[in-house]
Amino acid sequence: MTDIRLGLIGAGAVGVLHAQAARATSGVRVTAVCDLVAATAHAVAAPLGAAEFTGHRELIASGTVDAVVVNTPHALHTGIVTDCAAAGLHVLVEKPMATNSEDCTVMDRACRDAGVVLFVGHIQHFLPPMVAAKTALDTGAIGPLLAVSDWRSTDYRPGSRPDWFFDPAVSGGGVFINIGTHCVDRLLWLAGRRALAVSATAAHRGNTRAGIETDVLARLELEDGIVGHIGVTSTQLPARDELVLIGERGAIRVARGTGATLHPDDGPGAGGSTVLAAESADDVPRAFRDQLAAFAEAVRGRQAPAVSADYGRHVIEVIEGVYKSSAAGERVGLPAGLGASLA
Ligand SMILES: NC(=O)c1ccc[n+]([C@@H]2O[C@H](COP(=O)([O-])OP(=O)(O)OC[C@H]3O[C@@H](n4cnc5c(N)ncnc54)[C@H](O)[C@@H]3O)[C@@H](O)[C@H]2O)c1
C-alpha cells in the first residue's frame, strides 16, 4: 500500500495536532506544509522532512500531495478547498466548515465535481468519551432520547487566541462559531437528528473588539420532538465543559475531568454512576489520529467520509439560525435537509 501524501495548509495550533497525528498513522505521510508565515511552515515541516510553502497554490502546483488538511482561518476555507478540489486533491477541512452555508454548498459541489473526498473535521466524533456516550445511547442504555443539555466555557478575551478570531470578516463571528460549533456538532451527532428550529440569545459584552458575541444561550428543536439546550460563555466562571443526554430511563453525562458516565434510573441510586470512558490525557491526540485514519479510509475509497459535507453544512445552518434568532429576537425555522436524516 503506498502512503497517502498529505499536505497541511495552515500550520498553526491545530495544524500541529494534525502533524502529530500523521506521524502516528500508518499509510499517511506529511510531504508538504504551507503557512503564510514561512517560519511557522518550517517549524512543522522540518522535523517531518516535508516541503515548505507560503502559498497553497504553490503547494498544489508542486505535485507533492494527494490530499490536504485545511487549517486556516474560517473565511479562507472555501477558496482553498475549491482550489484543492480543482487540482484533484482530497480534502479534510477543519471546523467550522465555512462562515456561511452557501460556501459549504460551493465546497461540496467542487469536491463532488472533481470526484474527491470532502471530510469535515468535527473532532468530537472521535473523542473517546463522546464515542462511548454515543455507543451507550445507541444501544439503549437510557432508553429513547428526550433532551440534551450542553455547556462550554472558554476565555474569549482579546489575547486569548490569535487576532483573526476577533475579526468577524475572517472568523464569521465570535464564541459561537468557534467554540459553539463543537456543541452544535456533538448535540446533532449524538442525537442523530437534524435541527428544525432555533431560538437564541447572544450577548456582545464589551470585552472584545468588533462586536462579536461573547456568550450564547440557544434552544434547538430537533426531529422527533427532542430538545437541545446549548450554553457557551466567555465569562470568567469556573471552567465548564459538560454535556448531558436525558433519556426515558436515565442519563449519560460527558464532562471534562470525569469523562463519560452512565446514570440509569435503575442504577446504584442518586449520584451513583458507571464509568463508560474515563478521561485520558491521550483523548485529544487519539481523536486526531482516529480522525486522520478515517479520512485515509475515505481517500482509499473503503468507506464514506465519517463526517460528510452535508452534515458540516447543517452545523453551519444551525449556527446561522442562532445568529439570526438572536438578532431578530424570535424563533427561526431552519432549511429542510438537502440529504438524508442524521439518524
Ligand atoms: N478540531 C479542533 O479541535 C480545533 C481546535 C482549534 C482550531 N480548530 C480550527 O482549525 C482552524 C485553524 O485554527 P488554529 O487554532 O490552528 O488557528 P491558528 O491561527 O493557530 O493557525 C492558522 C494558521 O493559518 C495560517 N494561514 C492564514 N492564512 C493562510 C493562508 N492563506 N494559507 C496558508 N496558511 C494560512 C496562519 O499563519 C496560521 O499559522 C480553524 O478552522 C479553527 O476553528 C479546530
Brief synopsis:
With 343 residues, the chain is of the alpha/beta class.
Written description of the protein model:
The chain is of the alpha/beta class and 343 residues long. The chain has two domains: 4-122 and 288-307, NAD(P)-binding Rossmann-like Domain (Rossmann fold, 3-Layer(aba) Sandwich); 125-279 and 313-333, Dihydrodipicolinate Reductase, domain 2 (2-Layer Sandwich). 35% of the residues lie in helices and 25% in strands. The chain contains ten helices and 15 strands. It has helices spanning 13-23, 38-45, 56-62, 77-86, 101-114, 128-138, 168-171, 175-191, 283-299, 309-328; strands spanning 4-9, 28-34, 51-53, 67-70, 90-94, 118-121, 145-153, 195-203, 215-222, 227-233, 241-247, 250-255, 259-264, 274-277, 332-333. It has a nine-stranded mixed beta sheet. α1 (13-23) links the parallel β1 and β2. α8 crosses α10 (309-328). The longest helix is centred in the C-terminal third of the chain and has 20 residues, at 309-328. It is globular, with a radius of gyration of 20 Å. The model has no long low-confidence stretch (mean pLDDT 95). It binds nicotinamide-adenine-dinucleotide (NAD).
